[in-house]
Amino acid sequence: MTTTRGRVVTYVALIVGALATLFPYYWLAVMASNTTADIYATPPRLTFGGHLFANIGQVFAKIDFFGSLLNTLIVAVVTTLLVLFFDSLAAFTFAKYDFPGSSLLFGILLATFVVPTQLAAIPQFDLMAHFGWVGDLKALIIPAAANAFGIFWMRQYARGAIPDELLEAARMDGAGFFRTYLSVGLPVLRPALAFLGIFTFVNAWNDYLWPLVVLIDSNHVTLQVALSQLNGLYVKDYSVVMAGTLVAIVPLIIVFLFGARHFIRNIAAGALKG
């Protein structure tokens, strides 16, 4: 009886948690399908309206949605690929190889967690201006090609997931560092790479401050900056803003569903092998 009651409580808690998580997306869709007057109505309207496609049409008319979407997609995909490569390579080195100064270097890396991102905006902008990258997508991609969190996360995972015996066997077979990394390290690190890929893609997709600072051409912006242009100076049509936001999160949902399935599949495969 106690076990059954515990299961019921667990399921109820999971259902409540899932509903609480999904409600903001439902409310976003409701606001995107109604008018701004409906949003301000008292009591608020909790059902879908018939203005979704009209609001989306206004989004496409007011901003270069597909151009900014392409810019954001390029930045997010390239940044994610670079982070997965450089962070996993650095983490594999820190986790499984001893070299002079490794502890000091990793400590300095961890210390960068303390530095706020906004504090580095001015010197980073000056550096991008020196390279002539201001207004170019390279200014968004290159500085984000590696990050301390990814290296820390991958290192912690690699230390426990990659047996030293596999590395020793690879060395005995004559494999060099990169061959060992590709043939031994990456296959074991797939679950961690899936999580880091989702995390990096979402952060790159949602980034607003740095693209706003460094992309000075209003016709060459990312999606988040373009969506902010929907807000007028005196009149704010929140239904149109919500419609743009709703369309903008669709790629994130697709990436999450694909990445989460890959992540869970690799975790399950690792558990079965263990």
TrEMBL record:
Entry GO terms, CC: plasma membrane
Family under the similarity heading: Belongs to the binding-protein-dependent transport system permease family.
Keyword Transmembrane: yes
Domain ABC transmembrane type-1: 69-259
Keyword Membrane: yes
A Pfam family assignment: BPD_transp_1
Subcellular location: Cell membrane
GO biological process assignments: transmembrane transport
Protein's UniProt name: Carbohydrate ABC transporter membrane protein 2, CUT1 family
InterPro entries: MetI-like, MetI-like_sf
Keywords recorded for this protein, A-Z: Cell membrane, Membrane, Transmembrane, Transmembrane helix, Transport
Membrane-traversing stretches: 9-28, 69-92, 104-125, 137-154, 181-205, 238-258
Entry membrane topology: Multi-pass membrane protein
